[in-house]
Amino acid sequence: MRRFGWGGEEEVVVKLHLYGKHEAKPKRKMGHLNLLSDDVEKALNWVERTGVWREQESKRRER
């Protein structure tokens, strides 16, 4: 678990869950992230700032 904050305050807690799969395959889910925050906007800002889903968003637009 990792806590992220901007401007001196804790805003979002991020937990990475890996499924322990040994081989990556196309469209295979290898894990996921949980974001915990007292405010939805703070969590959405974290997603935008980090770009964690940027690649997936651009792939969706190409379809």
From TrEMBL:
Transmembrane segments: none annotated. Residues 14-44 form the Phosphoribosylaminoimidazole carboxylase C-terminal domain. This is Phosphoribosylaminoimidazole carboxylase C-terminal domain-containing protein.
